[in-house]
Amino acid sequence: MAGEFCQYRIPDYRHQTNTNSGSSTSSSEETCCPLNSNCCKTITSCLSSLAIFSLVLSYTVLGALTFMTLEGRAQEGGARGGASSPGGPDKLRAATVEKLWSITEDLNILYKENWTRLAEQEVLKFQDSLIRKYHVAGVAQGNATLPVPGHRWNFPSSFLYCLTLITTIGCGSVSPRTPWGRIVTIFYALIGIPLMLIYLSTIGEFLANNFRRLYHCLGGKKKSPPPPPQVVGNHVPKDYKAKELYSRPPLQPQHVPLLVSLVIIILYIVLGAAIFNKLENWSFLEGSYFCFISLGTIGFGDFVPGSMETTEKLSVFASSAYILVGMAIISMCFNLIQEEILLLTQKFNHPPVNPKSDLQMIGAVS
Questions:
Q1: For 82-196, where are the E strands, in sequence order?
Q2: What is the CATH number of domain 2-8+39-69+153-221+254-365?
Q3: How far, in Å, CA of 337 to CA of 257, rounded?
Q4: What residue ranges do the domains of the chain occupy?
């Protein structure tokens, strides 16, 4: 029976012995050598990823130019008309100042309580008139919401708007005001959202594969398996232990630990918090909060980049680049995390076989 067992197991090692020359280091070279059999696949994947990235970037630039034309002109016309029209913000502010001066002149003896009470009434009237004016202007354009203070439809802000649109972040504080802007938004999102999903899938898989190789190259080469025994007829040398027949497991797919992926996400959020601390003067907590809700496609809109006039364009461009690169990194990490979870699930569902029990069964049969 033992002889039959050897005859059953030996042919694999004979084949390995005959083809051993030049193949002993193939597994290590396949992992770390860039010029391997998968070189064509790597180049193809790189070119496809570059093509989809260029397509997304071009589509976003085209959308930015479109919305800058539609919404920018309407905003400029509304601003000129509102400032020059009778009863506009400038007129209301000037009338309020005149009333405050009249109150000061009418009071022969200035008491702080009386002057403050009358001035407060005039300021409240000014606020109500101003809000009513903006509300009427919004209804006239088909929008009953108030415009965002300080938001201008220039190229950086339009680019960021298009990016938040196709990534479904949806910054709630910015929206188109014109009917044509809303129509273009619908069709732009219908095309852009599937395009972004393709971008995340392609770039995420490409980055995950390359990061997996890089991680295992930096982690060191795996131990080479023991050489096969020298077979003479149907006999195996006695000094070659039987358990070594089972010491050559099948090639396992390379994987990255779950903790490494989580650390990458945390470090990228910390990097974004440091960037926006310099550009927007946000606190570390506010910057981390903005980065998290942006990369998580939550997009409350309570923090909007570009609020400081000195660094407005730089901040908006930095936000756009941070979101575009960050979505790819998040997709890569999710790809690695999903693979690790599936691997752990397979280990729990299929526990490893104990070689000792098989050897005991073979010995009992023989």
A1: none
A2: 1.10.287.70
A3: 8
A4: 2-8+39-69+153-221+254-365
d(CA 47, CA 41): 10
Question: Is residue 232 classed as helix, strand or coil in its secondary structure?
Answer: strand
SS3 breakdown of the chain: % helix, strand, coil, rounded to 5? 70, 0, 30
Secondary structure (3-state) at 236: coil
Q: How many residues does the structure list for the chain?
A: 366
List, for residues 113-170, the tens digit of each pLDDT value.
877 888 888 888 888 787 777 666 654 555 444 445 556 788 999 999 999 999 999 8
Burial 59-86 (b: 16+ CB within 10 A, else e): bbeebbebbbebbbebbeebeeeeeeee
Closest-CA residue to 189 (of 59, 301, 48, 328):
59
Residue type for position 225: P
* Residue 282 backbone dihedrals phi, psi, to 5 degrees: -80, 155
State the amino acid at position 335 in one-letter form: N
DSSP labels for 102-113? HHHHH-SS--HH
**Confidence tier at 26 by pLDDT (50, 70, 90):** very low
* Spatial contact of 303 and 289, defined as CB atoms under 8 Å apart: yes
H/E run at residue 209: helix 179-218
